[in-house]
Design goal:
Layout: E1 12-14, E2 17-19, E3 24-30, E4 34-40, E5 49-51, E6 59-63, E7 71-72, E8 76-77, E9 79-83, E10 87-94, E11 100-104, E12 113-114, E13 117-122, E14 131-132, E15 138-147, E16 156-158, E17 164-166, H1 170-184, E18 188-198
Parallel strand pairs: 7-18
Antiparallel strand pairs: 1-2, 3-4, 5-18, 6-9, 8-14, 9-13, 10-11, 10-12, 10-15, 11-17, 15-18, 16-17
């Protein structure tokens, strides 16, 4: 599914500010006549930081080009998740302007339980969405949370394009998830990926 199939890329607003379209919907021809909705996202990566604790799950996240790669506007990105145990996974994205949205679970993939393994593709070939780079550009952060028990549902607002926007601070969310894991003796883990995104006209760093 090439990025060339994407059409009519739009920038959406939230609270009267430019909001990273990290989950905006498009259509893509599949098998000639069927149109499948896609999710778009944005990003560039620096090595994963894994946060471990007692009763922990080891979590790592990277991209199809590895860490410390620059992605430009229009690039389509695949993430690769590694887990040492089966886990329910929550993926959040903090854009360059400070807005937070939920990438997984989403309206097209509500089940985010993954078997343990190395370099598990997100999305995989069966998922009807992709992540595509778009504005606003700059430093961004991807958070991955994993637990052997289902993670609590966050309060989200569904935008017109299907994005799940979060009106909660990332610090509060981390505290909530860690408290739940500690209080209930759940197996739990986190990984953080620092991102940087650039416009198509920008020369990528060597």
């Amino acid at each position: 599914m090439s990025g060339a199939h994407f059409q009519h890329c739009k920038k959406y607003s939230f609270r009267r500010r430019a909001f990273l379209f990290a989950v905006s919907f498009y259509t893509l021809p599949v098998l000639g006549a069927v149109l499948v909705p896609l999710l778009a996202a944005v990003l560039i990566f620096i090595p994963t930081t894994t946060i471990a604790a007692e009763n922990s799950i080891t979590v790592e996240i990277t991209t199809h080009l590895g860490d410390a790669q620059t992605f430009k506007q229009g690039d389509v990105i695949s993430f690769f998740l590694s887990l040492d145990k089966d886990a329910h996974v929550l993926v959040l994205h903090l854009d360059a302007t400070g807005y937070l949205q939920q990438l997984l679970p989403n309206t097209l993939q509500q089940n985010s339980f993954y078997k343990s393994g190395l370099f598990i593709p997100i999305p995989n070939e069966r998922n009807p969405f992709q992540f595509k780079v778009g504005p606003p550009f700059g430093k961004e952060t991807l958070w991955v949370f994993a637990s052997d028990k289902p993670l609590p549902s966050l309060t989200t607002t569904k935008s017109a394009n299907g994005s799940l926007l979060i009106n909660q601070d990332i610090g509060e969310i981390k505290s909530q998830l860690r408290h739940q894991a500690t209080s209930n003796a759940y197996e739990y883990g986190e990984a953080q990926l620092i991102l940087n995104t650039v416009a198509a006209s920008t020369t990528a760093p060597q």
